[in-house]
Amino acid sequence: MYRKCGNMKSAFRMFSKFSRKSAASYNTMIAGYWENGDIYKAREMFDQMKQQGVERDRISWNSMISGYINSFLFDEVFSLFRDMMKEGIEPDSFTLGSILTGCADMASIGRGKEIHSHAIAKGLQFNSFVGGALVEMYCKCQDIVAAQMAFEEVCERDLPTWNALISGYAHSNQNEMIGELLQKMKGKDDSAMQLFSEMQIENLRPDMYTVGIILAACSKLATIQRGKQIHAYSIRVGHYSNAHIGAARVDMYAKCGDIKRCYHVYRRMSEANLV
């Protein structure tokens, strides 16, 4: 209760009253400290476990790793990961997926590949959490080919995984590749539009973020027909009044040279905002 309320002083007083402290109580304190911005106190608790002879389980290590990632202390993340391996604690999907998220934030493809190799060794590259983190990491490191390969290995793709790959395509600096990826849904090669279609086939409803990404890509390439398809979809699923989607539609029509439709969308947005 105290942890969730951010009252770590009261939580520590309660913790101190325990005559015998378990790994579970230590783990609660570790998570509580870093969640409330005190990563150094969290590490103090983590180190105290070893000093007091309390076994640090995988949850302890994962919690501390998450704390470092949340605090953007990425060197400490990898140092702790290596210590974890030395102590014989096997990383799980949460460990690897969390560290890959850190690699994505750093755009560190070297370290990301190191974690990818651990995932392959344990057969975790098929896991949706790890696989999705791999896709995001490779996209942010601008290796869209590796991102596609990681995506294809994921057994059950969730919405964030799809969004990560579509975003990677849309923001790739290789404009000719984006052009290929945005071919019409009927015929020719696989594309970002095709991915958009496949999401719906797999019963994953593209969200506002997905729609915004595709509209931004259409805007970049001045592909008005494809942009209109996504515009129609956004109306059909009730995203029409969303400000983020509306701004993306205005930008797309403006860059495609359809000033009349651009003004119409902008006016509808203004009317909705006034209401």
From TrEMBL:
Name assigned to this protein: Pentatricopeptide repeat-containing protein
PPR repeats, residue ranges: 22-56, 57-91, 158-192
Membrane among keywords: no
This protein's UniProt keywords: Repeat
GO molecular function: RNA binding
NCBIfam families reported in the protein's UniProt record: PPR (TIGR00756)
InterPro entries per record: PPR_At4g14850-like_plant, PPR_rpt, TPR-like_helical_dom_sf
GO biological process: one example: RNA modification
Record flagged with keyword Repeat: yes
